[in-house]
Amino acid sequence: ALYVPEAGKFYAVIEPGDYQLAHSIKTGTPKNRKAPVWPQSDWKLPDGSGATTVQPKGTVLVLHGYGDAKENMIHWALYLAQRGYRAVLVDLRGHGRSTGDWIGYGAFEAADLRQVIDDLERRGLLAGRLGVVGLSYGASVGLQLAGRDERVAAVVALEPFSEPQTAIAEFARGVVPQLVRGWTQADF
User: Fold this and answer.
1) What are the pLDDT digits (tens) for 94-122?
2) How far is CA 149 from CA 92, 137, 155, in A?
3) Residue 96 CB coordination number (10 Å)
4) Contact 145, 152 (CB under 8 A)
5) Residue 129 pairs with which residues in a beta bridge?
6) Model pTM?
7) Measuring CA to CA, which residue among 53, 57, 80 is closest to residue 127?
8) Do residues 2 and 11 touch, judged by C-beta distance below 8 A?
């Protein structure tokens, strides 16, 4: 993993290559009308040193959701790398190995990611056009980054939220309902 001290962010770079990615979704026996879902990814390093001689088609930041970490987005990174893109997995503020006690639902994170992009440029790792793939919180952060940095050419936003107040309340009620039972929208 690479580290950007001024941003306090860790990121990992997955180069283009044949990772022989196989991905599937497995479900379990329903309990209380809910069936557990487990994504399954099987892959291996390319033969040889793992280095690639393929010039990347472009660079894609891969951003995780709230409470997650870059490692849980590896299947997206490998999918993109197999198709010729340099994939960059980022631990967003306060997640994974990155620093930060508070998240800003994009307000601070877009600036953090600009520093990550600057670091990629300094290291010669920003190849071709820059895109972002983000999930939920990462999707919303990616959209805010695109609005603040002209280097971002495209965003694929999976399950973004449009306003943090609503997203925080819905997330809390869905994930920790006992903790927020009786809270009003004003409390959030």
Assistant:
1) 999 999 888 888 888 999 999 999 999 99
2) 17, 18, 12
3) 20
4) yes
5) 58
6) 0.82
7) 57
8) yes
